[in-house]
Structures are given as C-alpha cells and as structure tokens.
Amino acid sequence: MTAFTDVTSDRMQLIAGNWKMNMDHSQGRTLLSELARTLTDMGHNYSRAEVAVFPPFTSIGAVQAAVQDADLQVAYGGQDLSPFDSGAHTGDISGQFLAKLGCAYVLVGHSERRTMHHESGETLKSKVAAAFRNRLTPILCVGEGLEIRRAGNHVKHTLAQLRAAVEDLTADQASELVVAYEPVWAIGTGEVAGPEDAQEMCAAIRTELSRLFDGESAAKTRLLYGGSVKASNAAAILNGADVDGALVGGASLDATEFAKIAAS
Asked: Is this prediction's pTM over 0.85?
C-alpha cells in the first residue's frame, strides 16, 4: 500500500461529465461555453483537476469547434467505440474517427451499454484495445447492481469485470487506463454510496491492478467514482485516498452544478 500513497499526489483529478443521449449539437456547444465560462469565473485550477465532457456522437464536432475557437481547456471524448477501426459495422463508431475529432478519452463498458447492449467482457477487452490502438484513453466502467451488493459479492463481481477487460494490457497501458467504479444501483436513482464505500471499491480495484500488473503501474491509474455525484456530496467522495475523480451523469448537464463538482 505504501507504493500507492507515494505517488498519489501525481494523479491529476479527473471530473468527467457523461451527457448520455442529451444535448444536440447546438445545445452541446452552448452548454460547453457556459461550463468554460463558469469554470473561469470560479478560478478553476486545471493543473489540479482536469475537466472532460462526453457528448453524443453527433455533438462531438460542435464541441470540438467550441474548444478550438475559444482555446478552451476542457477535454472531451466519445461515449463508446467499436472494437474495429473500419469496415462493414453499421452504426458503430471507429476509434480512428474519434481521434480525428480531437477526442482524448472514450467510455468503455458503461453499465447502460453492458445492460442494454449485452456487452461481454471479451467485447470490452477488444474495445479497450481499440482505444489504446487509436491513442485514446479508455475510461473502463465497472460496478455492481443492488442484488449483488446486498449479497456481499460486490467486490468479487467488480474485480471480475475489471480482469476480463484488462487481461491483455501491458503495465504501461494499465498505468494510463482510467477506471470508473459505478454502483449500478446508484445511477440515476438519487441513491449514493457513502464516501467509505467509494474508497473501499477504488482501493480494491487498485489492489487488483497491482496484483495483475505491478504496484508502480497501479499507483498511476486514475480511479473515478460514478453514482449520482452532486456538488453537495462530491467533496466527501473525492476525499478518499484512492478516489481520483468522478464520472458525473445528470449533474453534468448543469454548467454551474458541474463546475462546483470540479471545484470540490
């Protein structure tokens, strides 16, 4: 555990806003401009906490234009990507396309994708590989539902998801990976795991990464908490030694609320 704490200060906080299927291209550009202005007004320190947004695919171009036109410091990414870079894959989005739009990140394995699109561990492993292949940083989402948590199997379940997606990575890739722990029972319900729960799960994930790779790599991996994060609870959650940021859902659609989370 000492190896983890020695480099904790080197892990820049990441506050990521998942817009889900909200914000068309015009709305997205307006929201991003409002967010950037609010962060500036609040004196946000980007060297302490990185801010990123994840618009729908059709809004990424507008976000890119807003970032470039105003030289904004907000990063952005895709909500998903295909395991393939090109070809006969109707409806899929290539990591190559995301990279050419200036995306820095991409979400992989969000609980809604796992549930609604039945994404397997093998598929997610391929998507993580596709992200790295196209120089995108994958934010791998893992977490458990209410029944699993009540049965006391939340750690076992979450670490199994983690292993399935990262087993082919190198130690260097593991250090660049971002992992978001999202308790499925807390997403969009108003329920939230306590700060102790967030820290427990992030610590378990970091320990497993250390076992799979090495302590030095695991100490560099940024771990996020995603589960009904709001300005009112963000500071307590982000205080965990192994919690390096947040994956924010609904609250990221409000520029002021999201900026307050980033300032926590």
From this structure: yes
